[in-house]
C-alpha cells in the first residue's frame, strides 16, 4: 500500500481524499491542517494538526500538498521535501522554473522525490502541448479553457453597482475551433478564443439596461469579448450556477506533415468538478512519485519527466498485453 | 544531428522520409530496400540495397523499420537490433508481448535500445488509454476508429458479383459518443460503436437493388452494422475516395470521481494521411530511442516506458518555462 498524507484541506484536499478511495493500492494516513482539527469535517479520514506531521514521518510514503500557489506552496514544498516525497499543484506558470529549482535542490540533498505542478493545466495539458508539438513540428497549438467559472471575472461583475451577485463563465469559441480544425490559418489573441457568459442577480430597483451596458463595455474584462448577460434570481443562481465547479478545456494542434496534408490533434476535458479531477491527476502522480523514489530517482520532476507506466498499479506485462 | 536510416519503403517509409525533413535535429542517411534501388523513386533521399545497411553501421544512430507486422517486423526487429537502435510500428496487438520479449532479449545482450509498436494505435491511443484509466480508476474507456477506409471491408465489397470497385469507410457512431459523454451507461459491442459507409461502382448491367441488399445483409462484415451504400462512377471513386489515406479516431473515458460527479477525457485525431501521421509519431520516438541509448537505457521499450521529455529537442529548462 502507498501511504499518503494530505497537507491542507480545501477543495483540492477534499478531492484528494475522495480520489484515494478510488485507488485500491493507496491508504490515507491522515489530513494535516493549520486549522484546529476539531473544526475540520473530513469525509471520515483522521484529521491532525500540522505539527503532528513530523511525528508520523515513518508512516508516510508521500505528502500531497494541497495549499495555494500564491503563498503556501512556494514555502511548503521545499520545506516538506526535506523529510517527505511530495507532490504539489503549483500553478503560477511564470514562477515554475524558480519553484522547480528550489525544490530540486532540497530534494537532491535529502534524497527525496518531488513532482511539482501536477493537475490538468499545468499537467495533462502541458503533456499534450509537448507531445503534439514533438509529433507535428510544423503547426500551431492552441489551448482553450472552459466551459468554466472564472473567479476574477465573477468578482468584477459583483463590483458593478446595482449587482447583488453574479457568476461568469469563460467558454471556448466553438466557431474559431471549427475553423482551425478545418485548416484555416488565423491570427488569434486570447480574446478571440473565448466568449464570456454572465449570470447576474440585480439589487432591488437597479437599472437593468444600464448595468448590462456597463458590463459589456467594462475594459480588460469584457469590452473586447463577445459577452452575453443574463439576469436571473438569486435562487436560480444558487441552484444552477453555484453547485459543483465545472471546468474543462482543450489543447488543439493543427499541423501539416507535408504540403497541404492536415493533421488534427485534439485533447479535451469536460469536468463536472475541477478540484476533484485535479486531485485525481495528482493522486496518480503521487503513485509515480513513490515508485520513482523507490528507484532512487531523486530531485524535482514534472509531468514531462515521468514515464506513463509509473502512473498505474498495473504491471508492465499487463500494460503491454491489454493497453498497447 | 540524429542520423536515421529508413528500412523498407512503402507508404510508411515515405511518410518517415517526409517527417525527418520537418525535424531540424535529424538527418536521413538513406533508405534501405529489398527492391533494386534504381526502381525506387524516393523524394530526393539516397536509396541503397538492404545489404548496404551493415556497411553504414557507424553512420547510423537509429533504424526506423517500416516493414509490415505480418512477416517483416517479427524477423527484422530482433535481427537488426543486434547492431542498431531500432523503432518499429508492430501492430498485431495479440502478438506484442511475444515480439517485445524477442526484441528485449537481443537489445539487452547487445546494449541497444528498441522502441516497439509506435504509432497512433498502438501508440498515442495506448498512452491515452493508460493515462485516462490511471487518473479515473472508476469509469469506462472506449476506443473509436475512423473516419477511415477499412481495407478488409473494401475488399469484401469488391468480391460481390456485379461490383467493379468500391471503398468502405468505418465511421464512429456520433450518437453513441454523445450519449456516453452525457453519462449514459451503455453496454456496447464493437458493432454498436461504428457505422459503415460504402461507395460502390457497378459493373455494366448489374442489378443495383440486388447488390445493395447483398451488401447490407453480408454476415460478419455488414449485417450487424448500420450500413449505407452509395452507387457512384469509377471517376468519382478515383477522385473523391482514392486520394490520400484519411483516418483518425478517439479514446474516450467517462469516469466518476465521486457519486454522480462525471469527468470526460477525450483524445481525438483527425488525420488526412494515416501513414504520414504514424510516421511523424515514429520519428519523435526515434529521437527518444537515441537519447535513451545515450543514457544506456537498453532493452525493448514501449510508449509506456518513455518519459515525454525525450520526444522533443527542447531542453528541460525550456519545457518547464514554456510548455508547463
UniProtKB/TrEMBL annotation, chains A, B:
Record key words, sorted: Amino-acid biosynthesis, Diaminopimelate biosynthesis, Lysine biosynthesis, NADP, Nucleotide-binding, Oxidoreductase
TM stretches of this protein: none
Annotated binding of substrate, by residue: 145, 170, 196, 247, 274
GO molecular function, one term: nucleotide binding
Residues noted as binding NADP(+) in the record, renumbered to the chain: 9-12, 33-35, 66-69, 89-91, 118-122
Pathway(s) of this molecule: Amino-acid biosynthesis; L-lysine biosynthesis via DAP pathway; DL-2,6-diaminopimelate from (S)-tetrahydrodipicolinate: step 1/1
SUPFAM superfamilies assigned to the protein according to its UniProt record, in alphabetical order: Glyceraldehyde-3-phosphate dehydrogenase-like, C-terminal domain, NAD(P)-binding Rossmann-fold domains
GO-annotated biological processes: diaminopimelate biosynthetic process; lysine biosynthetic process via diaminopimelate
Domain of life assignment: Bacteria
Catalytic activities: meso-2,6-diaminopimelate + NADP(+) + H2O = (S)-2-amino-6-oxoheptanedioate + NH4(+) + NADPH + H(+)
CDD domains assigned: meso-DAPDH_N (cd02270)
InterPro entries: Diaminopimelate_DH_Ddh (IPR010190), Meso-DAP_DH_C (IPR032094), NAD(P)-bd_dom_sf (IPR036291)
Alphabetical list of Pfam families matching this protein: DAPDH_C
Domain Meso-diaminopimelate D-dehydrogenase C-terminal positions: 119-273
E.C. code: 1.4.1.16
Subunit structure: Homodimer.
Family per record: Belongs to the diaminopimelate dehydrogenase family.
NCBIfam families: DAP-DH
Record protein name field: Meso-diaminopimelate D-dehydrogenase
Organism, as annotated: Vagococcus elongatus
High-level lineage: Bacteria, Bacillati, Bacillota, Bacilli, Lactobacillales
Amino acid at each position: 500500500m502507498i501511504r499518503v498524507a494530505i497537507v491542507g484541506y480545501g477543495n483540492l484536499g477534499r478531492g484528494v481524499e475522495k480520489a484515494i478511495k478510488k485507488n485500491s493500492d493507496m491508504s490515507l494516513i491522515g489530513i494535516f491542517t493549520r486549522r484546529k482539527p476539531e473544526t475540520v469535517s473530513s469525509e471520515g479520514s483522521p484529521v491532525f494538526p500540522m505539527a503532528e506531521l513530523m511525528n508520523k514521518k515513518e508512516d508516510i510514503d508521500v505528502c500531497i500538498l494541497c495549499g495555494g500557489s500564491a503563498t503556501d506552496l512556494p514555502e511548503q514544498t521545499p520545506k516538506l521535501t526535506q523529510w517527505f516525497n511530495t507532490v504539489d499543484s503549483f500553478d503560477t506558470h511564470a514562477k515554475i522554473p524558480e519553484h522547480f529549482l528550489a525544490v530540486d535542490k532540497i530534494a537532491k540533498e535529502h534524497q527525496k522525490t518531488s513532482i511539482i505542478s501536477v493537475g490538468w493545466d499545468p499537467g495533462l495539458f502541458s503533456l499534450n502541448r509537448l507531445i503534439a508539438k514533438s509529433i507535428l513540428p510544423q503547426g500551431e497549438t492552441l489551448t482553450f479553457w472552459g466551459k468554466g467559472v472564472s473567479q476574477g471575472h465573477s468578482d468584477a461583475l459583483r463590483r458593478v453597482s446595482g449587482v447583488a451577485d453574479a457568476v461568469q463563465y469563460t467558454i471556448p469559441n466553438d466557431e474559431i475551433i471549427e475553423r482551425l480544425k478545418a485548416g484555416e490559418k488565423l491570427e488569434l489573441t486570447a480574446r478571440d478564443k473565448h466568449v464570456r457568459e454572465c449570470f447576474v442577480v440585480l439589487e432591488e430597483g437597479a437599472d437593468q439596461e444600464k448595468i448590462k451596458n456597463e458590463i459589456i463595455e467594462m475594459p480588460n474584462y469584457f469590452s473586447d469579448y463577445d459577452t452575453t448577460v443574463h439576469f436571473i434570481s438569486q435562487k436560480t443562481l444558487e441552484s444552477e450556477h453555484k453547485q459543483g465547479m465545472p471546468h474543462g478545456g482543450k489543447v488543439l494542434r493543427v499541423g501539416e506533415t507535408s504540403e497541404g496534408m492536415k493533421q488534427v490533434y485534439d485533447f479535451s476535458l469536460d469536468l463536472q468538478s475541477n478540484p476533484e479531477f485535479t486531485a485525481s491527476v495528482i493522486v496518480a502522480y503521487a503513485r509515480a512519485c513513490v515508485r520513482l523514489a523507490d528507484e532512487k530517482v531523486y530531485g524535482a520532476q514534472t509531468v514531462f519527466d515521468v514515464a506513463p507506466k509509473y502512473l498505474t498499479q498495473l504491471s508492465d506485462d499487463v500494460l503491454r498485453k491489454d493497453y498497447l
